[in-house]
């Protein structure tokens, strides 16, 4: 897979979760699929998973197995 510019995965995840803010969160696979479409090329699932895991808690909340949303401070 071709390497992406720094911050593209982060910005894509945050933007998508901001648009799809809900109490039940969004499935990890749905986030990854959106990034593939948005960036026009496949994004390594490990990159998406890593970014979510490294920033939970903090930027994201895990609301169920494989489901995430922005934490309350990031939604404001």
Concise summary:
With 76 residues, this protein is α+β, with helices and mostly antiparallel strands.
Give a topology summary:
Elements: H1 8-19, E1 26-27, H2 28-39, H3 45-54, E2 60-64, E3 67-70, H4 72-75
Antiparallel strand pairs: 1-3, 2-3
Helix pairs in contact: 1-2
Describe the structure.
By secondary structure, the protein is of the alpha+beta class. It has one domain (8-70). The protein contains four helices and three strands. Strands 1-3-2 form a three-stranded antiparallel sheet. A hairpin with a 2-residue loop joins strand 2 and strand 3 (67-70). Helix 1 crosses helix 2 (28-39). The radius of gyration is 12 Å and the shape is globular.
**Could you say which overall geometry the principal axes of the C-alpha atoms support?**
globular
The H-and-E topology, N to C, reads as HEHHEEH
The residue-averaged pLDDT reads 87
> What is the strand tally?
3
- Total of helices: 4
For the record, the count of structural domains works out to 1
| Strand order, largest beta sheet | 1-3-2
Tell me roughly what share of residues is in helical segments. Answer: 40-55%
Strand content: 5-15%
Uncertain residue segments:
none
Q: State the end-to-end distance.
A: 34 Å
Q: Major sheet, described briefly?
A: 3 strands, antiparallel
Computed CA radius of gyration, to the nearest angstrom = 12 Å
Alpha-beta classification: alpha+beta
